[in-house]
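Dear Dr. K.,

Following up on our conversation at the group meeting, I've run the structure prediction for Hemerythrin-like domain-containing protein from Rhodococcus erythropolis. I'm pasting the input sequence below exactly as I used it, so you can double-check it against your construct before we proceed with anything downstream. Let me know if the numbering doesn't match what you have in your notebook.
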Amino acid sequence: MNAPHSHNTATVAGLRMIEQLRQVHEPLRADIEVLENALQQLSDETADLTRIPEMIDNLTIADFVWQLRVNCDFYCNTLTLHHTIEDQRMFPVMTRNFPELAPAVERLQAEHKLVGEIVSEAKRASLALSTESSTVNRAHAAISELADHMQSHLDFEEATLFPYFRRMDRDWHYG
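The predicted structure tokens came back this morning:
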């Protein structure tokens, strides 16, 4: 899909929407990387396991495996909510204002559906996580698959929507 004609200036509302979406996307990018790396460390028999706790920023509520279960589940729930908001609220506003976005929005919604299936497996795998290597390997594989899909999905979404956000006089939250 071709981006709209570039504009030298962006609207205040457009810049605000770009910043809001970046504020959601950046932690999603960072957290999936931390989860993937922590599970890689846990699955690597030669790893220095003393480094793992610092990877999740000194969380001390319970043991490391419990923290990973909770954080993976929280990440998956947050991602599901984020995609639901986009599908039900943001995308309809964007396609109403910019009908030419329809093919890109269809792609994004299809990706949300695929990511939703991957998220379901990641949740199941992370909630079953224990110190047994088979559960670690399953969770690591699921989170790695999710990480692979999320990076390209977020990049495409931002590249597609940000040029349109820049042109909007009104925040999509308000229709």
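Two things stood out to me. Helices lie at 12-43, 52-55, 64-97, 102-127, 133-165. The chain has one domain: 12-174.

Best regards,
J.T.
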